[in-house]
Design brief:
9 strands, 27% helix
């Protein structure tokens, strides 16, 4: 009986060894970072995801009263044509955007998207000027000639969504 149990165990072990998936690990010599060209600047963390909202008061109430998040006061940014409210999430923020003035880019967005929606993502960079120079060399369109001061009081630029797979990307000086 012991011999038959030994053969059964050996057969099971053989089946496990042949059916187990192969796990491959990357060695440091084959790192994918070797394929990434070096830059004079670096991308940092996700700073926020911006959401255009048709009713700022209702959006603030949703995040504060219903979902229990910490929500900032409304801040007007006339140079950007928006009112902003930040919702703290621990690892990042949401930026609620509402039009300020008739020429607001958010007003245009809301004309096309009546209920609102995701407007852009914001990623920090360690050198916004170097980023602008290199992105222009790589034919990535930047929506302004110079950085503007954003909602956090830091320089920001926006990259054209057609050059970023349909996503409006904001870069902010860290």
């Amino acid at each position: 009986m012991a011999a038959s149990q030994g053969r059964a165990a050996a057969g099971l072990l053989t089946r496990l060894q042949t059916s187990a998936p192969t796990i491959r690990t990357l060695s440091s010599s084959n790192s994918s970072s070797q394929n990434v060209p070096s830059c004079l600047w670096k991308l940092g963390r996700l700073n926020h995801v911006a959401i255009a909202v048709p009713d700022l008061g209702k959006a603030q109430s949703l995040y504060k009263d219903v979902l229990g998040a910490q929500v900032s006061e409304t801040v007007a940014l006339p140079e950007h044509g928006v009112y902003t409210v930040f919702v703290e999430l621990g690892n990042t923020k949401l930026e609620l955007l509402h039009p300020l003035g008739e020429k607001s880019p958010i007003a245009n967005f809301l004309q096309k998207n009546k209920t609102g929606g995701m407007h852009h993502i914001c990623i920090e960079v360690d050198d916004i000027n170097a980023a602008m120079t290199e992105l222009k060399e790589k034919k990535i369109r930047i929506l302004s000639e110079e950085p503007k001061i954003g909602a956090h009081g830091k320089p920001v630029i926006f990259l054209h969504p057609k050059d970023c797979y349909g996503v409006l990307v904001e870069l902010e000086q860290a």
